[in-house]
C-alpha cells in the first residue's frame, strides 16, 4: 500500500465559479478578465473556451478571434475566495486536507487502509460527488492519487477536465516516461531550457541520469529531490514557506502611461508592505516589472537591508524606476515583489536607524486601513492610483480580505 496522497485540482476554477453563480454562462465559452477592454488579457478561461485555444494570458482581442461567441466577465475575487474556503471544508469532511497548495488545489493525506487502490478511488469518487452536491455542478475536479504529492499532482494533470488518475509506486518511473519535462511540477521555462540544453526533453531522459547527475544539472539538492519524487519515494515535504510577496495590475487604457504606471506600482508596494508586516516578515530584496502592450518586458531589482518599512520600499521604487529605458512603448501591466524574506528572529535591521517609532506608526496605519478600508490612510505618492491594488488572487496565494481589499 504505497498510496499516500490524493490531490484535488479544480478545473478552470475562476471561470467555473462564475458559471456556477451565473447559470446563463453554463456551457458557454467564458473569459475572466481584470477589466472590460480589448487590450487586456484573460486571467482565466472556461473549459469551453479552452477548446478554442483561449487560455490564461490570451489577449481579449485575440480571444474574440479564436472564439467569436466568447463572453467576458470581470473577475470577482471575493466570490472565488468564498468558494475556495467552502470547497476545502467539503473535501476535508471526506478525507483530511493536509495542505492547501493554491486557490484551486489541495493535497489530502491517505492513511491506513485508505491507501489501498480500491478504497482510494472510492474516496476520490466521494469527494467529487460531495463537491457537486454541496458546492455545485460546475465545480469539476481532476483528482490524482499517488505515492507522494508530486506524483499525485502529475496524475491530476493527465486528464482534464473531470479526471481521476491513480499511479502506484510499482509503475514508476516508467508510467511517466512519455511526458515532456515541462509537464512536471516545478519545471518552468528557464529550467525547461536548461534541461533541453542537456539533451533532456522527456521524463525518460531524466530517469536515465543518476542522482548525482541530476544534482549537477539542477545545481543543488533540487536534482536529488526530483530523482526521488519521480520514483515515488515518500517525501517529507517542507511546510509551505512564503518565498515572496508580490502584486501586479493590468492597467486600464487611460492609465497606460509612465506617470500612472508609477503611481499604480507605488500603491501595490504600499499594499504588499502591509501584507509583509501582518506576516511578521522582512524583505531584503525588491523587484519591479513592466509588461508592454507589444509583449516586451523590463525588470529590475535591488538588494536592501531587510525591512518592512514602506518609505524604504518607495525610495527603492524611485531608484529602480529611474533605470527604466526610455521607450515609446505602451505599458500594459506593472508588478512588484518582495523576496529574500526573513522572520523576526532572523531580522538584523539597519545599524543607523531605530525601528521602534516606525513600527508603532505602521501598526497604527495598518489598523486604520483594516477598520476603515484600504484607502483610509496611504502615502500621497499613490494618490492617482488609490483605486488600484484591491483584492486580487494569484493561484498560489489566497488573499486575506481584511487586509487586501
TrEMBL record:
Keyword Transcription: no
Family from the record: Belongs to the DNA polymerase type-Y family.
Listed GO biological process terms: DNA repair; error-prone translesion synthesis; SOS response
Assigned keywords, A-Z: Nucleotidyltransferase, Transferase
Source superkingdom: Bacteria
Keyword Nucleotidyltransferase among record annotations: yes
Domain UmuC: 5-188
Top class in the EC scheme: transferase
UniProt protein name: DNA polymerase IV
EC number: 2.7.7.7
Listed InterPro entries: DNA/RNA_pol_sf (IPR043502), DNA_pol_Y-fam_lit_finger_sf (IPR036775), DNA_pol_Y-fam_little_finger (IPR017961), DNA_polymerase-Y (IPR050116), IMS_HHH_1 (IPR053848), Rev_trsase/Diguanyl_cyclase (IPR043128), UmuC (IPR001126)
GO MF annotations in UniProt: damaged DNA binding; DNA-directed DNA polymerase activity
GO cellular component, one term: cytosol
Amino acid at each position: 500500500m504505497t498510496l499516500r496522497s490524493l490531490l484535488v485540482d479544480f478545473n478552470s476554477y475562476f471561470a467555473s465559479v462564475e458559471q456556477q453563480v451565473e447559470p446563463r454562462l453554463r456551457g458557454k465559452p467564458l473569459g475572466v478578465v481584470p477589466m472590460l477592454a480589448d487590450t487586456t488579457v484573460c486571467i482565466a478561461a472556461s473549459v469551453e473556451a479552452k477548446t478554442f485555444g483561449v487560455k490564461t494570458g490570451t489577449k481579449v482581442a485575440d480571444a474574440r478571434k479564436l472564439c467569436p461567441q466568447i463572453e467576458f466577465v470581470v473577475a470577482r475575487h471575493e466570490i472565488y475566495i468564498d468558494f475556495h474556503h467552502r470547497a476545502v471544508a467539503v473535501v476535508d469532511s471526506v478525507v483530511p486536507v493536509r495542505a492547501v497548495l493554491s486557490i484551486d488545489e489541495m493535497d489530502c493525506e491517505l492513511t491506513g487502509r485508505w491507501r489501498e487502490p480500491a478504497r482510494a478511488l472510492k474516496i476520490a469518487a466521494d469527494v467529487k460527488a460531495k463537491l457537486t452536491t454541496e458546492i455545485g455542478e460546475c465545480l469539476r475536479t481532476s483528482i490524482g492519487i499517488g505515492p507522494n504529492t508530486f506524483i499525485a499532482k502529475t496524475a491530476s494533470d493527465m486528464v482534464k477536465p473531470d479526471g481521476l488518475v491513480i499511479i502506484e509506486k510499482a509503475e514508476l518511473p516508467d508510467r511517466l516516461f512519455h511526458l515532456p519535462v515541462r509537464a512536471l511540477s516545478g519545471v518552468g521555462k528557464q529550467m525547461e531550457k536548461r534541461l533541453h540544453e542537456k539533451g533532456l526533453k522527456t521524463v525518460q531522459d531524466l530517469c536515465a541520469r543518476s542522482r548525482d547527475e541530476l544534482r549537477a544539472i539542477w545545481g543543488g539538492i533540487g536534482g536529488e529531490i526530483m530523482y526521488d519524487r519521480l520514483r515515488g519515494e515518500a517525501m517529507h515535504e517542507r511546510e509551505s514557506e512564503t518565498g515572496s510577496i508580490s502584486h501586479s495590475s493590468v492597467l486600464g487604457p487611460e492609465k497606460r502611461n509612465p506617470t500612472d504606471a508609477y503611481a499604480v506600482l507605488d500603491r501595490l508596494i504600499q499594499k504588499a508592505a502591509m501584507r509583509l508586516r501582518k506576516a511578521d516578515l522582512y524583505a531584503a530584496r525588491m523587484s519591479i516589472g513592466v509588461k508592454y502592450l507589444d509583449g516586451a518586458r523590463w525588470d529590475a531589482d535591488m538588494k536592501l537591508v531587510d525591512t518592512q518599512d514602506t518609505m524604504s520600499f518607495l525610495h527603492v521604487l524611485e531608484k529602480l524606476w529611474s533605470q527604466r529605458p526610455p521607450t515609446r512603448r505602451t505599458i500594459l501591466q506593472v508588478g512588484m515583489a518582495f523576496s529574500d524574506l526573513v522572520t523576526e528572529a532572523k531580522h538584523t535591521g539597519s545599524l543607523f536607524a531605530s525601528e521602534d517609532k516606525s513600527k508603532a506608526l505602521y501598526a497604527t496605519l495598518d489598523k486604520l486601513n483594516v477598520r476603515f478600508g484600504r484607502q483610509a490612510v496611504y502615502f500621497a505618492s499613490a494618490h492617482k492610483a488609490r483605486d488600484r491594488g484591491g483584492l486580487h488572487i494569484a493561484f498560489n496565494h489566497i488573499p486575506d480580505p481584511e487586509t487586501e481589499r
